[in-house]
């Protein structure tokens, strides 16, 4: 197949963000009097927005709407001060972005991370590269796996969805790509398994970023 653009997920695909997210969330839980979780556990918890993250980390018996709202607000507050302490592009991502730019392929980013943090992470840590669109979670846009954001980006790119590779690391990403009519590709350097990606529609699964160039 011939592809004309690449749409990236952010956390777990372009950037390794889990340690900073874990630190922020554990700090929020501590303020609420709850125990935190190991960093490794957060690889299964992140990816669906901060409200869902709060639901997943709170004790089941303490997961009412007020506690979820307070936890999510505290996570945002903590993350604002620590988001860049440990977060870096994954190995091979700078070289992949350079190669895509050299080929003249447009790229974009779609994340369930709140819009302000999505824009901040891309600007500060991926500012060497030009993305045609960068969208995060906001009241204006339903979260992934709703395909609205992906379709909006396809329109902005001026490309048919079927000619856009969607690269992500979670079931949510694969479901988004399928619903938007894009070509779903799983990133194994991220936070989820090959089995999860294939079960939710991945048509290719990559071991390392440079493998994308073969498509």
Q: Could you characterize the architecture of this molecule?
A:
It is a single chain. With 215 residues, the chain is α/β, with parallel strands linked by helices. The protein folds into 2 domains: 5-16 and 87-214, Rossmann fold; 18-82, DNA polymerase, domain 1, CATH 1.10.150. It is built from 9 helices and 8 strands. The strands form 2 sheets. The protein has a 6-stranded parallel sheet, with helices on both faces. A two-stranded antiparallel ribbon has the order 2-3. The longest helix has 18 residues, at 65-82. The chain starts with a strand and ends in a 9-residue tail after the last strand.
Short précis:
With 215 residues, the chain is an alpha/beta fold. The chain has nine helices and eight strands.
């Amino acid at each position: 197949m011939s592809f004309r653009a690449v749409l990236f997920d952010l956390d777990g695909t372009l950037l390794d963000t889990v340690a900073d997210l874990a630190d922020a969330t554990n700090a929020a839980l501590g303020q609420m009097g709850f125990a935190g979780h190991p960093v490794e556990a957060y690889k299964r918890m992140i990816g669906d927005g901060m409200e869902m993250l709060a639901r997943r980390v709170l004790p089941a018996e303490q997961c009412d709407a007020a506690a979820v709202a307070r936890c999510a607000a505290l996570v945002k507050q903590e993350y604002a001060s620590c988001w860049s302490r440990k977060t870096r592009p994954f190995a091979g991502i700078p070289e992949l972005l350079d190669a895509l730019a050299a080929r003249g392929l447009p790229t974009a980013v779609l994340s369930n991370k709140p819009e302000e943090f999505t824009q901040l992470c891309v600007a500060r840590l991926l500012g060497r590269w030009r993305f045609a669109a960068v969208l995060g979670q906001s009241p204006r846009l339903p979260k992934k796996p709703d395909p609205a954001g992906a379709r909006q980006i396809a329109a902005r790119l001026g490309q048919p969805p079927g000619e856009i590779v969607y690269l992500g690391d979670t079931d949510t990403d694969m479901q988004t790509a399928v619903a938007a009519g894009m070509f779903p590709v799983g990133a194994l350097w991220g936070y989820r398994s090959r089995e999860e990606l294939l079960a939710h529609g991945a048509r290719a699964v990559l071991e390392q970023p440079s493998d994308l160039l073969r498509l």
